[in-house]
Write a structure and sequence with these properties.
16 helices; 5 domains; alpha+beta; 13 strands; 428 residues
Length: 428
Amino acid sequence: MGSTDGVHTDDTDELTEIADRLDAMTRRLNADACAGPVAAALMVQLGRVGRSRDAMTGPVAKRIEETQAYVVHGDRSAAEFCARMAGVHTSQAKRVIAEARRLESLPETEAAFRAGHLSAQQVALISAVAVHDPSLETELLEHAGDGLVPLRDACIAAQARTEDPQARSARHHAARSFRMWNAADGMVEGRFKLAPEVGAGLKALIDERTREVFRAKHREGVREEHDAYAADALAESVLGSSTGRVATTVHVVIDHAALVRGNTQPGERCDIPGVGPVSQAWVQQQLGTALLTLVVKKGKDITTVAHLGRHVPAEVRTALIVEGRECCVQDCHARGYLEIDHSEVDFAKGGPTAKWNLGFICSPDHTRKSKGWTLGPPDPQTGKRVLAPPGRSAPAIIGTPQPEIGRAARRERVLRLLAPVEVAGEVP
């Protein structure tokens, strides 16, 4: 194979030929004339092309930096040259180069990336954690097929498990950031990073205000995107409003032994559901200074708590939140503005408001369920359910559907579910 200063000219010629063919195909492609299955097949192949491009971009960009090949093109850095060639921001090119460096110590991830089994986002999540502890690489690669949200959760959990708590808190503090800038359309946008102990409180505040904004708009007959309500909530929280301050609650799950001992051991929990592990020292500091729901993993079987009406008791709502605030439908990882659904036996058919009969579901999937779609039983491993459309055979629903019954009969049946429990208290 011919080369010039170590650069394989055959590779350059081959890639140039492929790019020319793609350019020609782009010009002649008429997507509007494609049948649905053809369009879907095209997207599968475009995904392959995109992953191959991403897998090559990092090593090439890193090599440009090492050889300073960008100088002859009049650019000040490899990131600047690569960003100009790709039509992206320089910060994105810098991340690609840094990621390529990390992959040098992660051979399995690099091989999977080059083979087209991983996307650039998956590689970024895995490499950011495994570069500090390569022994985690295989474990995280096993989660790659679960989706981006489960993979992100696995990365957070793996790093928290292997990292010294004080070092973790120091890293979070050092990495905190907040930036705002003007977008191309004249609006103001931004990006921020906060330690989980700080971010959880902020998220709880914004979520509560978002619900208030939604209800107010709903009464006015206004329908907007959830993100729009959240933007209003952010502005009101920072700039203030006539409604006054919103009381918020942060849920923390902690093992009883860890609470008594004063520190966590391997396998024990001290985390905020939906946020991640937090410092136990921070939890101790909040006792007496913030409204904190402390869920202690000892002596409380929340699965036996039930209610006669649609209202969800505080204990049951807390149990649902701490087990994972995410839509229960398979392949849906929505976590914002979820509804609590009677998932096993419908309320109209006598289903109690008990934990075993409740689950989170996002608004679009809840609308489908209301229109006749059916939920299958929970997967034994993930707890997720298949949501099947009307007319299509769906997995059998757990539990036998019950006939509609009156309130008195419902009360009698639900009372049989109740058992003495120790209530996890709210710490003022």
